[in-house]
Amino acid sequence: MRIGFGYDVHRLRPGRKCILCGVEIPCDFGPDGHSDADVPVHALIDALLGAAALGDIGTHFPDTDQRWKNANSIELLKKAYNLVLLHGYCLGNADITIVLQSPRLSTYIEQMRKTLTSAIITDIENISIKVTTEEGLGFTGDSSGISAYVVVLLQPQN
Ligand code: MG
What we know:
The protein is of the alpha+beta class. The chain has a single domain (2-156), classed as CATH 3.30.1330.50. Helices cover 30% and strands 32% of the residues. The strands form two sheets. It has a five-stranded mixed beta sheet. α1 runs parallel beside α3 (73-86). It starts with a strand and ends with a strand. The model has no long low-confidence stretch (mean pLDDT 96). It binds magnesium ion. Magnesium ion binds at residues 8, 10, 33, 42.
């Protein structure tokens, strides 16, 4: 088995869509970025690639490449996971933590888990999503940014 870790941060900006784990959250601000800036999915991609020692999201989907402008991060996730599969591994489980001061995300978690489950074809119990705030401290606390931490375990395919 192989372990991987991913971390991502994006600035929050008024008027941007707020898409997290492939689910659009009703909100008047969202993560800024070249793609749809789905922070937890970017961290998940980095954790998957890291576990397989296949580089990182920037190597495979550089933000200087116009192909990935406004990209749907779920599609990037599918491509990254395909690389993992090609190298003989599949997901054991993923544990995702999203750090955001507001809005509250708890009512969207099941939909997020289902979206990720169908993107990478795994059982829902293999995908954990947790949300937390940093109690008003730092860049997440003052809502200037959002971050996400992900750990994954890959296992050899049978
Ligand atoms: Mg990112």
